[in-house]
Amino acid sequence: MTRAPDTDAGLYRAVRLIRRFEERAVELVRSGDVVGGIHPYTGQEAIAAGVCAALREDDVITSTHRGHGHVLAKGADPGRVLAELAGRATGLNRGRGGSMHAADFGLGILGANAIVGANGAITAGAAWAARQEGGDRVAVSFFGDGAVNQGVLLEAFNLAALWRLPVLFVCENNGYATTLTVADGVAGTITGRGAAFGMPSVTVDGMDPRAVLGAAREAVDRARAGDGPSLVECVTYRFDAHHTWEHKARPRYRTEEEVRSGRERDPVVIQGARLADPERELVDAEVEAALADAVAFALGSPHPDPVGALDFLYATGMRARPGGGG
Amino acid sequence: MPWLSYQKALNRALGDELARDPAVFVLGEDVRVAVSTVTAGLFKRFGPDRVLDTPLSEQAFTGFATGAALSGRRPVIEFQIPALLYLAFEQIVNQAHKFSLMTGGQARVPVTYLVPGSGSKTGWAGQHSDHPYALFAHAGVKTVVPATPEDAYGLLTTAIRDDDPVVVFAPAAALTARVDVDFARLGPVPLGVGRVHREGGDVTVVAVGHLVHDALAVAEELAGDVSVEVFDPRTAYPFDWDGLAASVAKTGRLVVVDDSNRMCGLAAEVVATAAERFDLLAPPVRVTRPDGAVVPFAPALDRAVQPDRAQLAAAVLKALKH
């Protein structure tokens, strides 16, 4: 797949692909083919699609533990992403990263990150380095509403604003930091966090790919022009569990009614309605075919050789002392 | 030949690497005016794009360095106080160190974390006196503790050129060490290659950083009775096990002095590996800070928890009794 184009059809393809990818991935968690479970992105697709459609291939992103959507929207091959989830040698990270660490440096994907808020500072450094190289590349940091309470992210806001770095901070406010509601976890407002550092900060409908694209484009233009970082809060809803373990643990933190009502504003439906029927069906069929190929590729790929479990531990190739006795 | 101090050696290595490689840059708190002196003159020489004064935001600027490194830069962060590493532990151990493996070899994170003034500075009390190199060695982060000015120059240079994260601990008590050295002969020193500072046949004393100088003093003091070999691994991780094996093969006895805490410290690892691998004539002995030590303020109390020369001399004699 190539990066999501910024047309209605392109946005639809992106949200549809991410949705179906996540649905297939959940099935593969249930069947045991994807180990460790996943954090499904269903419901939040408009954000990845809209933001990445505003980017060029040479722009960089960092992502979260709920990162498949960002990685796919930035152009990663679904087969290699799925192979990574399944722990195969052909995965994006050769089976060393899994769902929460998917990275494709060739596409400017500096990695999904499993520590909430940690990627904000990494993104600021990448943006600074991009500016030092010259040109007008930008860097995007995706994070959730839980991250806005992490000190390191607020420190990163300060660095980015102080040094006018070409960064777009994208908050995916899905209402819950795992199970904690925004009302119970966030004092003040999320955009207030950005405004405090002098960053243009807006809230958009995170269920509408067009709305996200519009806000992202403004922020990206500002960053490219040398006018510094922005914060875009995308209000969205997570259709599924925080993580697939919820299927077994069943923590109670939201009502069925709330979930049903949240699902009513479905980005796939919203964006699909902007296409004429034959066009949408063609995209659907194409996505299904691409995913069938992806599943076949992932499940047909070899498992990594345990002998190389600590390959890549050091970029210099240094080998660690073995741990076994004898 | 001119004198070179340890502190000036670090400054010289930074200046030489900044001049040699445009990807290198220095960042940290008060580096522009060089409060710690190791960055003296660098801002004037290289400007604000190469020497960045940061806000007091250890977590953010350490993560920032990772992002810059992922994008082709070679950051050197100066931490004025060793305990600041605790704040940035997540960014170093859980992010920078793990990126290469987690991305299946796509990422390089060539960041150097320079800590001038590690360990006791007598009177700096509980939160400014730790010497936490064992934590990084345990985590697998390359960890360097130079003892001499020429090694400080050479190891910092190598750390900056290394494609992995490297923490360079410059002990407070070593910063004033000076040697008579030919500047033209200063050069990179490889990581993981130890140095025998003094040859001996009766017992091997392992020490890093300023403790090497204590070990040499004790060796001199005991010279009439005991022939002490002083082995400095120079890097706590990777450790020069082969170099130590060669030394112990000669002496058959081992004493380790280490001013980090005893529990799971460097001395613990050296003694454990020696027990597994080496043919020792006597049980190994270690001299360390106590378990879990928090360095107390009053000078006499501070000194009471630091390994000293008398303890080391006693340990050497103990190893020889067998």
Structure, explained:
The complex is a heterodimer of chains A (326) and B (322). With 326 residues, chain A is of the alpha/beta class. Chain A has helices at residues 8-31, 45-53, 68-73, 78-85, 118-133, 151-162, 182-185, 190-196, 209-224, 246-249, 256-263, 267-272, 277-299; strands at 60-63, 109-112, 139-144, 167-173, 176-177, 180-181, 201-205, 230-235. A six-stranded parallel β-sheet of chain A has the order 2-1-3-4-8-7, with helices on both faces. A two-stranded antiparallel ribbon of chain A has the order 5-6. In chain A, α2 (45-53) runs parallel beside α9. The mean pLDDT of chain A is 96. Chain B is α/β, with parallel strands linked by helices. Chain B is 38% helix and 20% strand. Chain B has helices at residues 6-20, 42-46, 58-70, 84-87, 89-95, 99-102, 133-139, 149-161, 211-221, 241-251, 266-277, 299-305, 309-321; strands at 3-5, 24-28, 51-53, 74-78, 112-118, 142-144, 166-171, 178-180, 195-198, 203-206, 228-232, 235-237, 254-261, 285-289. In chain B, the strands form three sheets. Chain B has a seven-stranded mixed β-sheet, sandwiched between helices. A five-stranded mixed β-sheet of chain B has the order 9-11-10-13-14, with helices on both faces. Chain B has a two-stranded antiparallel sheet with strand order 1-8. In chain B, α8 (149-161) links the parallel β6 (142-144) and β7 (166-171). The relative contact order of chain B is 0.12. The mean pLDDT of chain B is 97. Classes of the chains: A alpha/beta (326), B alpha/beta (322). At the A-B interface, α5 and α6 of A face α3, α5 and α6 of B.
How is the topology of this model organized?
The complex is a heterodimer of chains A (326) and B (322).
Chain A: H1 8-31, H2 45-53, E1 60-63, H3 68-73, H4 78-85, E2 109-112, H5 118-133, E3 139-144, H6 151-162, E4 167-173, E5 176-177, E6 180-181, H7 182-185, H8 190-196, E7 201-205, H9 209-224, E8 230-235, H10 246-249, H11 256-263, H12 267-272, H13 277-299
Parallel strand pairs in A: 1-2, 1-3, 3-4, 4-8, 7-8
Antiparallel strand pairs in A: 5-6
Chain B: E1 3-5, H1 6-20, E2 24-28, H2 42-46, E3 51-53, H3 58-70, E4 74-78, H4 84-87, H5 89-95, H6 99-102, E5 112-118, H7 133-139, E6 142-144, H8 149-161, E7 166-171, E8 178-180, E9 195-198, E10 203-206, H9 211-221, E11 228-232, E12 235-237, H10 241-251, E13 254-261, H11 266-277, E14 285-289, H12 299-305, H13 309-321
Parallel strand pairs in B: 2-3, 2-4, 4-5, 5-7, 6-7, 10-11, 10-13, 13-14
Antiparallel strand pairs in B: 1-8, 6-12, 9-11
